[in-house]
Amino acid sequence: MNELLNLLEHDARRPVSELAAILRRSEYEVEKDIHALEKDGIVLGYNTVIDWNKAGRNTVTAVIEVNLTPQRDVGFDAIADRVSRFDEVRSVDLMSGGFDLLVTVEGESLQEIADFIARRLATIEGVVSTRSHFLLKPYKKDGLIVGNKEKDRRLVVSP
Fold it and tell me: Quick one: pLDDT at residue 105?
């Protein structure tokens, strides 16, 4: 099952016939496994990684460190769930270290994100503080190189 998951994670558009050949299984078995993975909530969805700048849409992305006061009986879960439901939010992760949640948001402008933080995120009961960082330029996203795919510029290692 892990091998199938690795293949799907790398390229979910790969045809079932190709997956079956790689896994040395029947197409029926692979389709059945994929359906079970989706039903069990192991495969949550299929996303396309898009270079929005090349597509002509300029967006602003920020990662926000959020400090929380845990709530009785639910800890951070209730606040994280609430934050996850905002349309601007792309991801929410519980962290160890100097802050509790790492929230990634996307907006049309710096001002839109600032308004989201000030009016919606920071006002949630239990949110103690926020610290924002704006992404300036992506180089790699979800395992894929973003931007110009020139020749490989890694240093050649030879014995």
Answer: 98
- Assess whether pLDDT exceeds 70 at residue 159: no
Tokens in use for 63?
Answer: 């990662």
What are residue 62's DSSP bridge partners?
Answer: 105, 134
C-alpha 92/C-alpha 103 separation (Å) is 5
Q: Show me where the domains of the chain are located.
A: 2-39, 60-137
d(CA 7, CA 88): 29
Q: What's the length of the chain?
A: 159
Nearest to 47, CA basis, from 93, 90, 92, 85: 90
Q: Give the pLDDT score at 148.
A: 67
CA-closest candidate to residue 54, choices 133, 141, 154, 116 = 141
Cβ atoms within 10 A of the Cβ of 121, count? 22
DSSP class per residue in 43-93: S--------TTTTT---EEEEEEEEEPPBTTTBTHHHHHHHHTSTTEEEEE
Q: Which residues pair with 134 in a beta bridge?
A: 62
Q: State which fold the 60-137 domain adopts.
A: Alpha-Beta Plaits (3.30.70)
Residues 6+ apart with CB under 8 A from 30: 4, 16, 19, 20, 23
